[in-house]
Amino acid sequence: MIFNKDTAEKTAEFLLQINAIKLNPRNPFTWASGWKSPIYCDNRLILSFPAVRNYVRDEFSKNIEKQFGKPDVIAGVATGAIGIGMLVAESLGLPFVYVRPEPKKHGRQNQVEGFLQKGQNVVVVEDLISTGSSSLLAVEALREAGANIKGMAAIFTYGFEVAEENFKNAHIDLFTLSNYQNLLNLAVAKRYITEEEEQTLREWNVSPSTWTIEV
């Protein structure tokens, strides 16, 4: 679910402007999973554009507090959400921790890095939601560390049904600054893509694991 429509449209426009999101229905990208995709999203680029990162920080800060109440701690999911999560924590005047994909192999073997007390209320910040699996592994690690998860806030989601099911089953409320639907609407309105390309992008979104481009 998006925080609100105005934010969703403005965020989508920023992501397209800085090429954090690239749309290429005729020459698809290949994801690490092997999926063929007409879209590629790299929200880490946001950190290189001060005006955009400040906008994302401010929208997160305002809407997290409005939606979840002010938490005790902000947690970023490594590695993509460490930078923006830290900016949000700084803006809200809150402690920050981040969650590794798995525990370190040496030292204290931490998976959650930073100071976190049992029972503290935590909002998790993520950069991108695809299936939600890696994001929810971070939630699980925080819960094991004793955190009370108030919810998750992400920059962008592809809106896959499997992600919605995964978050529902994990009992985690997910809110995003923007999503796939708002992105496509804006991309057509601003002529980043044609209506025919929009149709291809919508077909991919229905079944991304089996989608192939017609030759």
UniProtKB/TrEMBL annotation:
What's the EC number here? Answer: 2.4.2.10
**Which residues are noted in the entry as 5-phospho-alpha-D-ribose 1-diphosphate-binding?**
100, 104, 106, 126-134
- Report domain Phosphoribosyltransferase positions: 59-156
The alphabetical list of record keywords is:
Glycosyltransferase, Magnesium, Pyrimidine biosynthesis, Transferase
Superkingdom per UniProt: Bacteria
Q: Which CDD domains match?
A: PRTases_typeI
Query: Which enzyme type, at the first EC level?
Result: transferase
Q: What does it catalyze?
A: orotidine 5'-phosphate + diphosphate = orotate + 5-phospho-alpha-D-ribose 1-diphosphate
Extract the Pfam families matched here: Pribosyltran
| Any GO MF annotation of the entry | orotate phosphoribosyltransferase activity
InterPro entries referenced in this protein's UniProt entry, alphabetically? OPRT, Or_phspho_trans_dom, PRTase-like, PRTase_dom
Q: Which amino acid positions bind orotate, per UniProt?
A: 130
Q: Which cofactor does it need?
A: Mg(2+)
Per the record, the pathway is: Pyrimidine metabolism; UMP biosynthesis via de novo pathway; UMP from orotate: step 1/2
Annotated family: Belongs to the purine/pyrimidine phosphoribosyltransferase family. PyrE subfamily.
Instruction: Write down the PANTHER family for this protein, in alphabetical order.
Output: OROTATE PHOSPHORIBOSYLTRANSFERASE, URIDINE 5'-MONOPHOSPHATE SYNTHASE
What is the protein's quaternary organization?
Homodimer.
Function, as annotated, reads:
Catalyzes the transfer of a ribosyl phosphate group from 5-phosphoribose 1-diphosphate to orotate, leading to the formation of orotidine monophosphate (OMP).
Looking up NCBIfam families in the UniProt record yields: pyrE
User: What is the protein's name according to its record?
Assistant: Orotate phosphoribosyltransferase
Organism, as annotated: Flavobacterium algoritolerans
Q: Which gene encodes it?
A: pyrE
